[in-house]
Design brief:
Blueprint: E1 2-7, H1 17-31, E2 35-41, E3 52-55, H2 63-66, H3 74-87, H4 95-105, E4 109-112, H5 118-126, E5 132-137, H6 140-144, H7 154-157, H8 167-177, E6 180-183, H9 186-194, E7 199-201, H10 214-224, E8 231-236, H11 241-244, H12 246-254, E9 261-266, H13 272-279, E10 285-289, H14 293-302, E11 305-308, H15 317-324, E12 329-332, E13 348-350, H16 355-367, H17 369-385, H18 388-403
Parallel strand pairs: 1-2, 1-4, 2-3, 4-5, 5-6, 6-7, 8-9, 8-11, 9-10, 11-12, 12-13
Length: 408
C-alpha cells in the first residue's frame, strides 16, 4: 500500500504537535511495511532524507510572517485564505509539478493533517488522481470555529473553496469529502458525527524515552539561571494566545510569592511580544524560544510541574511527553480530554479564565508532597496508556480497511 501524508499546515509551523504526529506516522507506517511519502514543508521532524515532495517556504508567508501580530488580524487571514484557494500560488513549487510528482507516487490513501490540505487534495482529484482519503482533525474543523468569519472559522469557511450558506453546511461538506475522519478525542468524535462525517477516535500517542542527559541539563540551567533548588513550572507550545492562553499562566505565576519558583516558557509565535510585556516585571519568568528534541528532554528533566492552559486542544503531544517524564500535570478544562479519565486523579484541572485558581494549584503541587507523588504516578499511567505503538497499530488497521476495493 502507498500512503501520502499531506501537511500544508507545516508552512507556518517548524515545530509543534501536528508536525510530530506526521513524523510518527511516517516512521511508524514505514516500519509496518507501508510505502509512505510526505507532501509538505520542511520542519524540525520532516525534510531531508524523507521520501516525497518537500516544498520551499515563501519568506513573506512563512515562519517569520506567522510570528507577527499582523498575521492574526481577521482581514489578513481572510485575504491569505482566499488567495491560497483561488490559485494555489506561492506554494514553493508550481502546482502542476506537485500534481506530476503526486501522480508518480500514486498513493492508495492520502492522510490529511490540516484544513489547508483540502485545496491541494481537491486539485489532485480534479486532475485525474483517484485515492482514498483520511483527515486527522486536530480540533479546528470540528470544535473551535464558532462563526463563518471568526478567526477560527476562516480557514474552514474561506480556506477550502467550497460554496456554502452556513458554517455547519461547510463542515458537513468538508467531512463528507473524506472516506474517514480521525477524531483525537471524544468531543471531536461527537461533533464530526453530528455533521454526518464518517469518524473514529484515534488518540495521539508518544514514544518518549525520559533519559537523563546531565550535561545538557547543566547547559540549560546555566543559560537560564535555574538553580538546583528551584521549583520549575514548564510550558511547551506555540505562543499563540487565542488558543494557548499562556497569558493566564503568566498572570497566575506572577501571583506566586516563592522566590525559588521559575516559569520556563518554551516556544515561539505571534503572541511572544505580548507575553514578554506581560512578564516584564517578574525576573523569574524565562522565555527559552524553540528547542531541539535533546534540549526539550533536558527541559522536561529540570522541571517539576507541567502546565497546559489552552482554551482548546485536540490531544496535546506535550502532555504525553510530560507524562513520560513523570511530571505532575495541570491542564485547563478546555485542554483536558475525557479520554484521559481513569479511576484515580490523574491531572489537576482549572477554569482557563481563572488565573487565581491556577495560582492556588501551582502552590498546592509545590507544598503538598503526597499530591505531587500521586500526580507523578498518574503521569506514568498516562504514558503507558497512550503509546506511539498503539496509535500506529490503529492507523494501520484503518488504512487497510479504507483502501480495500477500488480507489476513488
Amino acid at each position: 500500500m502507498r500512503v501520502l501524508l499531506v501537511d500544508m499546515g507545516s508552512r507556518h509551523n517548524w515545530t509543534g504537535g501536528q508536525s510530530r504526529v506526521v513524523r510518527m506516522l511516517y516512521d511508524g507506517l514505514r516500519r509496518r511495511g507501508m510505502d509512505t511519502y510526505y507532501l509538505g514543508y520542511e520542519t524540525m521532524y520532516m525534510g531531508a532524507g524523507k521520501k516525497g515532495i518537500v516544498l520551499k517556504r515563501d519568506k513573506s508567508l512563512g515562519l517569520g510572517a506567522r510570528k507577527s501580530r499582523m498575521s492574526e488580524m481577521r482581514m489578513v487571514r481572510m485575504a491569505y485564505n482566499l488567495a491560497f484557494v483561488s490559485g494555489l500560488r506561492r506554494l514553493g513549487m508550481e502546482k502542476e509539478e506537485i500534481l506530476k510528482k503526486a501522480k508518480d507516487i500514486g498513493p492508495d490513501v492520502i492522510i490529511s493533517n490540516a484544513i489547508s490540505d483540502f485545496p491541494i487534495l481537491k486539485y489532485l482529484r480534479k486532475n485525474g488522481m483517484r485515492f482514498k482519503s483520511m483527515y486527522i482533525d486536530h480540533g479546528s474543523a470540528s470544535t473551535t470555529a464558532r462563526s463563518y468569519f471568526s478567526k477560527e472559522g476562516i480557514p474552514l469557511s474561506m480556506g477550502t473553496g467550497m460554496p456554502s450558506v452556513t458554517l455547519d453546511d461547510k463542515r458537513r461538506k468538508f467531512f463528507a469529502f473524506f472516506d474517514m475522519n480521525i477524531a483525537l478525542n471524544d468531543r471531536q468524535y461527537h461533533e464530526v458525527g453530528r455533521c454526518g462525517g464518517r469518524v473514529v477516535i484515534v488518540p495521539n500517542g508518544a514514544n518518549v524515552k525520559a533519559r537523563r542527559d546531565k550535561a545538557e541539563e547543566q547547559v540549560l540551567r546555566k543559560k537560564h539561571g535555574i538553580g538546583p533548588d528551584d521549583f520549575v513550572v514548564l510550558y511547551i507550545g506555540r505562543l499563540f494566545d487565542r488558543q494557548k492562553n499562556v497569558s493566564t499562566l503568566i498572570k497566575a505565576f506572577r501571583e506566586t510569592r516563592n522566590h525559588n519558583f521559575k516559569l520556563l516558557i518554551v516556544g515561539d509565535g505571534p503572541s511572544a511580544e505580548r507575553y514578554r510585556e506581560l512578564a516584564a516585571e517578574d525576573i523569574r519568568i524565562i522565555f527559552a524560544g524553540t528547542m531541539s528534541d535533546r534540549e526539550l528532554n533536558a527541559a522536561y528533566n529540570v522541571s517539576n510541574l507541567f502546565v497546559l492552559p489552552s482554551f482548546w486542544e485536540g490531544f496535546a503531544i506535550t502532555v504525553l511527553e510530560a507524562a513520560a517524564h513523570s511530571l505532575p500535570i495541570i491542564m485547563s478544562n478546555g485542554a483536558y480530554v475525557s479520554d484521559l479519565n481513569d479511576d484515580k486523579q490523574n491531572v489537576l484541572k482549572f477554569n482557563e479564565r481563572d488565573y487565581y485558581e491556577l495560582t492556588e494549584l501551582i502552590e498546592k503541587v509545590y507544598s503538598d508532597r503526597k499530591l505531587n507523588m500521586e500526580l507523578s504516578r498518574a503521569s506514568a499511567r498516562i504514558s503507558k496508556k497512550f503509546t506511539e505503538k498503539r496509535m500506529i497499530n490503529r492507523y494501520v488497521a484503518l488504512l487497510k480497511k479504507i483502501s480495500a476495493g477500488n480507489k476513488g
